[in-house]
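I am still getting used to backbone structure tokens and would like to learn alongside you. Please make up or recall a protein chain and show it to me in full. Would you write everything just below, so we can both look at the same thing?
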Amino acid sequence: MSERIDAVLSTFQGIRWNDILDILLVTFILYNLFVLLRDTRAIQMLKGFGIILVLVVISRFLRLDTMSWILTGLSAIWIIAFIIVFQPELRRALVEFGQNRIFKFIFKEHGQLYREIKETAEILAKKKTGALIVLEREVNLKGFIETGTTLDAETSSELLISLFNHKSPLHDGAVIIREGRIAAAGCILPLTQKDDIDKKYGMRHRAAIGISEETDAITIVVSEERKSISLAIGGKITPDINGETLLEILSLYAPKIR
């Protein structure tokens, strides 16, 4: 009995952390693939391929060389036939798989997020509509998020523009973006207490500087009076930048944004 226990323990001791990660990743991918295909005609063929794989394992375990050789060749043909016959279903499944929220979080395209913000700032500046957009980085902005209206919505230029529309009840506050999503709108930010701030800056600019003094957030300000775009970070504000410069700065700080 003790020898069996020692054998089991020695087996587990040989397992590395990346072996566990490997198993978890394969399980996760196979499960999601099954969920995506379960309501399609491809699932029946996938079940057939699974049966072949089980037979291959059994034949190798029993050392049925001829049967194993035939089944291995058949499985290769089965894969090719599966891809050809069910190409539309596979394409749809892969698209849905890539749109999974977990993968969006892991492989999030910050570039797309910043392009949405750039487009928003440019359109609002042309329309002479003020805006205040805060991007959370390492410092948690939960306290400021709670001062506004929680949204937890996908970030898009259309939604941002509508939030800052003069008819919107949330247009006077700030929009805070966390992990690529609009966490809240109509948020209240602290004003800077500096005395040497240029008089041309209004309340939005002072709020942008204020939040950047207390946190490491990046804040974009659109001035409705001057139709200009400014960016505040680290207690300093860079005024009158164009959309391309804004995009470059945001892209530069992308690794630090959650």
Q: What stands out?
A: Residues 13 and 133 are 51 Å apart (CA to CA). The mean pLDDT is 79. The longest helix spans residues 17-37.
